[in-house]
Hints:
Oligomer: heterodimer
Strand order of the largest sheet of chain B: 2-1-5-3-4
Number of strands of chain A: 29
Radius of gyration of chain B: 17 Å
Number of strands of chain B: 5
Order of helices and strands of chain B: EEHEEEHHHH
Helix content of chain B: 25-40%
Bound molecules: FE2/S2 (inorganic) cluster
Largest interface: A-B, 67 and 64 residues
Largest sheet of chain A: 7 strands, mixed
Amino acid sequence: MSHDSHPHPHGDGSWIGRSVPRVEDDRLLRGNGRYVDDIALPAAVEAAFLRSPHAHARIDSVDVSAALAAPGVVAVWTGDDVADLPAMLNKEELRTPPGLAELLDPVVRMTPMPLLAADKVLYVGQPVAVVFAENRYLAEDALELVDVRYSPLAVLVDPERSLTPDAPLLHEELPDNTAVTVAARAGDPDTAFARAHAVVSERFEAHRYVASPIETRAISAQVDPYSGRLTVWSGTQTPHRLRDAIAHTLGLEPAAVHVIAADVGGGFGQKGILYVEELIVPHAARRIGRPVLWREDRNENLTASSHAREQIHRIELAADSEGLIIAVRDRITVNFGAYNMTGLVVPYNSLCHLLGPYRIPNVDIDVVGVLTNTTFATPYRGAGRPETVFAMERAMDRLAAELGIEPEELRARNLVGPDAMPYATGLVDRSGRPQTYDSGDYPELLRRAVAKADVQGVRARQRAGARDGKHVGIGFAMYIEATGLGPFETARIDIAPSGRVRLAIGAPSQGQGHRTSMAQIAADAIGVPFDVIDVVGGDTEATPFGVGTIASRALVNAGNATHRAGRLVREKIVEAAARRLGVDADGLGLSDGVVTSKEPGGPSIGLAELAGRAPLPGTPEPVDGRYGTEISETVHFRPPGFAVSAGAHAAVVEVDAHTGGIEILHYVVVHDAGNIVNPMIAEGQVTGGIAQGIGGALYEEMVYGPDGQPRTGTYMDYLVPTSSEIPDLDMDETFTPSPMNDLGVKGLGEGGAIAPQAVLAGAVEDALRPFGVVVRRGPLSPSRVRDLIRTADRT
Amino acid sequence: MTPSVPTPLAARTPPLAEPSAWHEISLTVNGRPVTAQVESRLLLSDFLRDRLGLTGTHVGCEHGVCGACTVLVDDEPVRTCLILAVQCRGTEIRTVEGLAPGDAPLTSVQQAFHECHGMQCGFCTPGFVMTTTALTEQSDRPDGEQVADALSGHLCRCTGYRNIRRAVCRALDERFGE
Lengths: 795, 178
Ligand code: FES
Ligand code: FES
């Protein structure tokens, strides 16, 4: 596909809509990235954490004397050493928006996490002690000398078991192991079920897997001896929140903490929350009086950084004789792991994305978030949506089979049409407003996916029968995603004396290419060339406020803040030029960095000349009472509602019934994210998301034994797909601009990851129709596929 | 004597092991001779990053699966987390920093990754670039299977690989003709 075939959202836009090559690449390609671990801090000590080997145990004693005496050890801390600091709470995430609180009255129980466990450990990998030493080798040597005595307690791994009345309590201050409950109803589901022509009832499980960015988590900190301020480098997606959390924990003013998320090697949600290591390292830098660095290893990342996805859905669909779905009921159990880190985020995302692109008038959904002795679970790319889409799309496939309708036809009959937009579902969205799909043409998405997928060809191959035990199948899945989550994002634009433009945004980049796409937006909004713009993100000094790059929100919020700030700056530039030139501002235009009279032959002035007036002897007084360098604007964009992206995926697979191996023959994606700023970057985001989804569908699973021991702690047993496993994609897109923002954009960072599990499960089930297989859970590893065939044979 | 490679500010030098565990090694890194005292257990990845300040070589797993730490040792791609610095005595090592030093134009491999958008966060990129560089230096064009094989030793979590494959094809076309 040509990258330049995309529509430009604004007639005058010369940069938006173009596949501008990324300005970030040159540096990264030369090895000049500055990821946390690359930043040299003179005389730094390195930290290594001692982590619990038990899933649930009392800590009887900790003896660090031998470790303290080990070579190169600077300090060893246990829970007692940080007892004066408050336990960690992801406060922001645990706050329920007022609208939602009033309407649904959800229960959200906080579980603060001790910085280092002192009494009790709740999962394998929980930090119990930390060693600071001259380097990591020595720190890890000393870890082995820390002597901790534990009394093991009964372990809960299965969330349904956790909910039983006789289950041991994880957090003794809570009445049971429930962290969150929330429910929503619309219409009259009971009556609809009673009247239905057909009902399917199923139990589907989304299995547990992890974001697994190739750069593990890392943090370093140092105190500036001159100012006393704390500078923190962190691979975080939310630097402002981290700054506030560090300040709160250490009893500092937020302004005394400077957080920099320079280059970040992938985040995908795992780096979007707060971790105890991020509080301990800055604390240590102050207390020890030397810079401190911690970099996670892969085993820690897999076992002790947040997990995701594990949910159980008991879902029921009711349909009339035409195949119109009249009601849905779902009981969703979300495994939170040992701590409630993000409250309603995942449960509510699952709840309010269950209906997807379908018209379903009667709804009855309950979600419960459950605590277990496993690593805490938090949002991962899609955050509750892949799970719920898996359940809904699988249920659609079962209903199609029940009614004898083709799966794509059943979907088509139930889609919300473009003429129904904006469409209110009858539920409330995550900010407590009536849930509304702002725009989109879902039938068109499905039409295009069906057209590309060659259903007839697949059906013909199926009729011809399997050859060598190889069965072909096709699956479809659709999703919608509420993107552009608020409450706000910041952009600040300054004109430098040279005429260069500095754009600072609150949202950092973990590879999304903000330096390029945001500069495209700013160039158009201001009327300057793309290459005079420098973009800074992920630095709490550059913008005092910010939320972060999570939840497909950066382009929508930071992008629109940039657009507005750019427009305001443009006005100021034109006004300043008018005063300087002694003409009327209405008669001036700004393009390519030059303010020019609209009259032919009229005066003009370049940005550098306008901005370059510094207060030096002999400089004329600025006309407007301000110097050019002060042309700046800060905008906090607050989205009025969600910009709802959507997509249709189709997959054709070949399943080898003998080996259980799956080959993806054709993967189709048709998506809609409104106007596109940089098509090349957008396609990259979609492609990367789908690859992660395929990984989850076919290979990746974080496995626990019944004793709470993780069994997939390395890349040898936690299988991340390589190039060989990910096919080229057959991509198409539609563009329905969002009415929620000036740019008409919608988020797309997560979309690709939402549907692959569902579509591949559908395709495999279709391929294995001769065996009567029903796919209720992933990943579809060869052994699981063989199991499905074997057990289906018997029943 | 001027140091043969820049010494970073923070050399995380392991200072405190038994003298018997130390070895003097001499090798060439990006064309410059280096002599250093290293502890036996020092990984090549840590030697390059912490001792020589060549942080372009990234560490993603430390157990030989992700490929991010790949450099060329005597022209062969090697995972620096699976080899000790002391084992590299007398070798010639090339890291990503050595491809287009300073302001030199990017190599055709680097350029291909840029043009094909074969990178997002860039963390896996040096490893892919070094392996691809080795592919372009073979005397014959590697066939599809050899390319697939080489790429399967690297993990990328961002790009979905499609654009990386394109970049590698472009680099090979450039080198061997289409
Ligand atoms: S860090 Fe060496 S292969 Fe992953
Ligand atoms: S570009 Fe991020 S891991 Fe490959």
